[in-house]
Amino acid sequence: MTQRVPVIERILGANDRLAADNRARLDAAGVFSLNFLASPGAGKTSLVEQTVSRLAGRLRLAVIDGDIATSIDADRAAAAGATAVQINTGGECHLDAVMLQGALEQLDLSAIDLLIVENVGNLICPANFALGTHKSILVASIPEGDDKPYKYPGTYRGVDALVINKIDLLPYVKFDMDYFRRGVAALNPGLVTFPLSCRTGEGLEAWLDWVTACVRMK
Amino acid sequence: MTQRVPVIERILGANDRLAADNRARLDAAGVFSLNFLASPGAGKTSLVEQTVSRLAGRLRLAVIDGDIATSIDADRAAAAGATAVQINTGGECHLDAVMLQGALEQLDLSAIDLLIVENVGNLICPANFALGTHKSILVASIPEGDDKPYKYPGTYRGVDALVINKIDLLPYVKFDMDYFRRGVAALNPGLVTFPLSCRTGEGLEAWLDWVTACVRMK
After folding, report:
1. Are the CB atoms for A17 and A132 separated by under 8 Å?
2. Closest CA to B72 of B45, B106, B54
3. pLDDT by residue, tens only, chain B of 218 residues
4. Which residues of A touch B73 (CB under 8 A)?
5. Substitution target from B151, B170, B198 for chain A, most A beta carbons within 10 A
6. CATH number of A4-137+200-217
7. Where are the domains of chain A?
8. For chain B, which has fewer Cβ within 10 Å, the N-terminal or C-terminal residue?
9. Bridge partners, residue B137, by sequence
10. Which residues of B touch A123 (CB under 8 A)?
11. Does B81 reach chain A within 8 Å, measured CB to CB?
């Protein structure tokens, strides 16, 4: 196993340089960008749909979707009103900076205010690969359970905001919000957090206001 | 990136040899073993708890839990009545055969009929690393959504049985069971499937009967 370590370090070094290039390109074009991280099925694509459809009148949006296979997510983002590009990783468990670089080449960045990158559904690997986006957003969800910050500390530690999706399911599952929030606070004190439901719309306004403020402050 | 490929191939080759060693060791001791795969929060640990507590009078059970961090899962398995060993991968996104080898050394295999290995919560990477266990079980869950077979084909293709957990949440979420099952059938025709709820107990008997039959037929 030990022989793998130096190779991965070289790859991560190259990835960080490409991520810096991506950031510079986004900044030069005046694009603000978010990287959505989550478990499979936490609701990244539903949050993309809600964000796109509700901000479409105010901001020019584009979405880059990462998946092992299919264009299901990009199709949903496009149907919600965004310019959408699908990346199929062909088995890779995360996006990396070179994949984002390729996707950026397919977009007219001068026509975009907000770019959302939806990473591969995975609570572990994507956190290790910078893309060059401005902020990372973790989408957690109630039915995943309240122990996830404790069990996936690396991802919780590295993000800039936390969405707690599917709060409409709180009456039907065992989820101790205080225990969950204590776990988050120990890893990422003061993390801005948005409990919401993409299904019912509850809590979405605070999230949309925050995103809009991020874009305007850029 | 291309330089990474041959190194990973060598690692996988070594992993397969160690997995074969693990299998031989389990067979020699008469232990039947299952490898549980799932997204974070699909309910692997709840299924371990239910399986252990309901089969404890009939079979001698042990559980090996893989996680990035904490012993939450092994503690739950032990509380349910199993001998439990926790593996903390320290960041690795999957178990591999050498980790299982180390955990097997901590167990008295002659005193075990059924060993459950609970892999790291991840729908992608664990499927690429054989452990030497006899059957792989995928635990899906209703709130994850009905598109997961289409988006994570590698994991759905490689398993020997599918548990569909949290069916008690069907009234509260959008989930087209026919669409889900068509996706599964295209990847893994005839896959034995157990819709159930670890929370309500519905459907558990069929799963427990199947596990018991697997152990007895060994």
Report:
1. no
2. B45
3. 344 455 556 667 889 999 999 999 999 999 999 999 999 999 999 999 999 999 998 999 999 999 999 999 999 999 999 999 999 998 899 999 999 999 999 999 999 999 999 999 999 999 999 999 999 999 999 999 999 999 999 999 999 999 999 999 999 999 999 999 999 999 999 999 999 999 999 999 999 999 999 999 98
4. 151
5. B151
6. 3.40.50.300
7. 4-137+200-217
8. N
9. B36, B161
10. 40, 121-122
11. no
